[in-house]
Amino acid sequence: MDLLTSYKIPIGDFACSAFEWIRVSAETPLDTISWLLEEKVAAILWLLQSVDPLLVIAVFVSLTWVLQRSVKTCLLVGGGFLFILNQGYWEETTESLTLVLSSCLVCMIFGVPMGIVCAHHPRLYAFLRPVLDLMQTLPTFVYLIPAIVFFGIGMVPGLIATVVFVLPAPIRLTQLGIASTPAPLIEAVRAFGGTDRDVLLKAELPHAMPQIMAGLNQTIMLALSMVVIAALVGADGLGVPVVRALNQVNTSLGFESGFVIVVVAIILDRMLSRRGRS
Fold first, then answer.
1. What is the rounded distance in angstroms from the CA atom of residue 140 to the CA atom of residue 168?
2. H-type helices in the chain, by residue range?
3. Full domain range(s) for residue 66
4. What is the pLDDT of residues 113-138, one digit of tens each?
5. CA atoms within 13 A on the CB side of 250
6. CB 68 within 8 A of CB 276
């Protein structure tokens, strides 16, 4: 037993050295990534905050109608946003929506193509599966440490930590949808002279679209669950009043801000849910 515990495998020291080496050797690429993400976040935030809140709500309600064709869902979305406006959390809500939309955009841009590649290369997916498991099971607070080391504090490290935590969802669901495409459907496309591109565009992607949309829904929900954690590294949004309430043991503020987060989650879920479609 003493022999086993006398030498500790230096996992922590190795990780620290690796992060420091990356920070020093990749300073220029990291600064470029940070600048691009900051500009994207600033653009989305400006779009949501520079326009009158009622107009933004009208746009979300219109988008809900396009997606769901349900009057009840539109009323729910509009009522939810009006409730948030009434509670005085509009600015924090737009900041959280900016973080969610930014992370979802990055995750879907990278996750869907990676899911397609993994579906066509089972060995690659078998290799990536433990990595995806690690990304989803490692405590999210751990992601904040290298994010702070590489990008400082603010919205960018919160965005990076959110992306790392959320990215496995679109990869897994896209891979599942593409890989489960019925063989007769693929053979039918090839029988009419279809190429690999035709198979992907006319058979695999249409068949996998429900799973891809489910991946988008799950991506948004997981990203929204990170708003409180992202607030710990300086990210603005609804997580800030939650953290403030925790520090002050303020039950009223904590329940109020927490309930607003729930309302935002319900709004986004109903907007993207396939249940409301006729």
1. 14
2. 2-5, 11-25, 27-49, 53-68, 71-87, 90-120, 122-137, 140-151, 155-166, 168-179, 183-191, 196-199, 205-224, 227-231, 239-248, 251-272
3. 26-272
4. 999 999 999 999 999 999 888 888 87
5. 14
6. yes
CATH number, residue 66? 1.10.3720.10
Task: Give the C-alpha separation, 266 to 180, whole Å.
Answer: 30
Q: Is residue 103 part of a domain?
A: yes
Return the amino acid letter for 233. V
For residue 208, count CB atoms less than 10 angstroms from its CB and return exposed for 0-12, middle for 13-18, buried for 19 or more: buried
Q: CA 114, CA 125: separation in Å to the nearest integer?
A: 9
Give the tokens for residue 264: 């935002």
> pLDDT tens, 134-150?
888 877 777 777 778 78
Q: List pLDDT tens digits, range 60-119.
A: 999 999 988 889 999 999 999 999 999 999 999 999 999 888 888 889 999 999 999 999
192: tokens are 């009419």
Q: How many domains does the chain have?
A: 1
Q: Are 40 and 159 in contact (CB under 8 A)?
A: no
- How far is residue 39 from each of residues 82, 158, 230, measured CA to CA in Å? 29, 15, 18
Cα gap 229→222, rounded to integer Å: 12
- Residue whose pair of structure tokens reads 């607003």 in the numeric block: 260
Cβ atoms of residues 273 and 266 within 8 Å: no
Q: Which residue has the tokens 């020093």?
A: 24
